[in-house]
Amino acid sequence: MPYHPKACFVLYSVSCLLDAVDGQAARALGQTSKFGAVLDMVTDRCTTACLLCFLASVYPAYSLVFMGLITLDFSSHYIHMYSSLATGSSSHKTVTQDVSRILWYYYNDSRTLFVFCFANELFFVCLYLNYYWTSPVFSSIPIPTSLLTSDLAIAHPKLIGGLVQAVKNVTWPQVVALLTFPICAGKQIINGVQFWKASKILVGVDLAERQAAREAKALNTRGR
Length: 224
What we know:
2 domains; transmembrane helix; transmembrane
């Protein structure tokens, strides 16, 4: 990863694309299984975690942010999967509207799921490429003279000059990262909702089991 960014980018991208179609292929071939569903989620979490660990090393100022993202990603998906198994659900993607409209729409609309997952991974990949890519996108595009001589530029020369310089130096990974950041942020919100809702489900399961145990104990006491 630190020595072959181009190869890493290609392999990681291929992995993400295959992940987008493996579930559909399994359903089309009639080869779906609980093991496959869990394995798919585990491999997804591991690949993302590896990338985030590397980003934490090359962007040390944001290492706590990346570690927090890893923690949220693992914990929210693990507890969601466990709550699905505890309630006897056939799939972790089986979410009803009464549990969460956000999760229901996220898991039941394949296009929404693809967009959020793809943009989330693409944002992190762009941060990875940004560490190596230094060629500006707009360096050869001339700045309009009207902009430099406008009243705004005359009134705020440092502001306009800074913006012009920033635009001329921006790279394409930075552009794509800016475009995908809102969706990536939305994905983290979904992870948070997923963690919260799954926690409530597991608490409900615990309460129901304890209530059933108390009732069974009361029946045994009466029987004596």
